[in-house]
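Reply to dn_fold:

You asked what the input looked like. This is it:
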Amino acid sequence: MQIYLDYSATTPARPEAIQAMQKALTQQWGNPSSLHEWGQRAATALELARMQVASLINALPESIIFTSGGTEADNLAIMGIARLYTKPQHIIISSVEHSAVAEPTRQLEQLGWEVTRLPVDKFGRIHPLDLQESLRSNTVLISIIYGQSEVGTLQPIEALGQIARDRNILFHTDAVQVAGKLQVDVQKLPVDLLSLSSHKLYGPQGVGALYVRPGVELVPMLGGGGQEVKLRSGTQALPAIVGFGVAAELALQEIDVETPRLIGLRDRLFDLLAHVPSLVPTGDRYYRLPHHTSFCIVSPSCRPYQKRDTGRITGKTMVRQLNLAGIGISSGSACSSGKLTPSPILLAMGYDEIGAVGGIRLTLGRETTEADIDWTVIAIEQILDRLMPKVALCRP
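and this is what came back:
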């Protein structure tokens, strides 16, 4: 029995998306910029996909810029604004951003830009007052992740975005984990820029989009033929974009049914593991992505602000053990050259370096069933029972 519980990492492309991609490869393979019939067939498919993706977030089609994925969308938002200025200015992000935002802002910092990283509480959530107090006269952009991919916490984007709008400061959010799982309406949401990714909602990998509110100016990162309203040069990856469009359309059609189902499975997993003393849920239980569960493996050092290390089971250990049981999850910590690196997200939430390598994430999707949840719980309990005597664990 194999159970995939890593849907926040990637989702399998839907059959409908694959079928649309095959049609694009065989019947709509022209260059969308060409004026002849072959090009216009491709251009029609491209614009249909743009409308489908725009509908997912209730945007105007012309405000959707196709990219190679969420990372490029984030970079285009950050760098596209920064390049408007000849002198370094001030940017605000959260301390729990995805690296696709954290890294370009670090690069800007090296160029002299001022970067404020807002703190979060122990659940990974920002307090709007902290944003209010961080604003400066030279603040030109605020970028706050909508749903945190590692611990599942949803940020108060409406309140944060309204603070930015009241001060005429541009606001960007990475909505990669949210779109297709929660209703997103950019006509009501006070955001100027919003990032999307196809492979998080059952489309193909290698394609994403940046929503750009009409009137917002960006400097493109790529020089070239001026495709995507001169913001993202290069011949569009039409088959991938077409698959993205179909996946977005289906996600919107199914969201009212699928999201409550995922919430039920998510809560079932949390409840069934609540009695396991060696697991502590991470992130906010209430303000949370509907498909997301995450835990820290408890040792005395896995709780915030404690420094004592008497042995540990790392998140990486659990990933390997569950993989042997046929269950795919992910760890909250990265591995570089064989050395465990503490999760910067858990560190920002108050965990020490020992605890910050103990995070695991189990994320649910269209194929997840109650039986999958129940079997996974049994497997986790058995693995922890087997490994716990070898390390010093304790109740939270």
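The radius of gyration is 22 Å.
Hope that clears it up.
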